[in-house]
Specification:
150 residues, alpha+beta, Alpha-Beta Plaits, 4-stranded antiparallel beta sheet, 4 strands
Length: 150
């Protein structure tokens, strides 16, 4: 084959440092749009971004030239700098060190999109911790509880 072709959907989840509620609800759309721009500038395709005051969900297409780790490093670095400038009331804003990333099949893109769209409603019933542990269990990812929340 003379060209590289791929379509890799990925669902990424990460939180603010110490899961603090630092992302004001009234500014979530602006923050999500900014992060979408970072994703698109890195040659990936942002599909939907959502979340709450303490965490972010991203569904995007990963390009063949950018790794998940590289994309997350750029998302966190650029958005953290921007958030500190745009919201001076949070001069020490930071994202958590880690992240969770899950593959998504083409047939589940609409399901994941709806899930991310309904984060506010979803979190009236389940905390971020409960949500993340459920994802880890569903994907059969082994983890150590003591490192998950540090």
């Amino acid at each position: 084959m003379s060209q590289s072709l791929n379509k890799i959907y990925i669902h990424i989840i990460f939180s603010t440092k110490n899961r603090e509620d630092l992302l004001p609800e009234k500014n979530l759309n602006e923050i999500h749009s900014y992060i979408g721009g970072i994703i698109n500038q890195n040659l990936c395709k942002s599909i939907i971004i959502g979340g709450t005051a303490n965490h972010i969900h991203i569904l995007c297409e990963l390009t063949s030239t950018v790794s998940t780790a590289m994309l997350l490093q750029e998302i966190k670095r650029s958005s953290s700098k921007w958030i500190k400038r745009a919201y001076p009331q949070h001069p020490n804003f930071a994202w958590q060190n880690g992240y969770a990333a899950f593959s998504v099949s083409q047939s589940k893109v609409d399901t994941v999109t709806n899930y991310i769209q309904n984060q506010k409603e979803h979190h009236t019933k389940k905390s971020f911790k409960e949500e993340l542990v459920e994802f880890l269990k569903n994907y059969k990812i082994e983890y150590k509880e003591e490192y998950l929340w540090s």
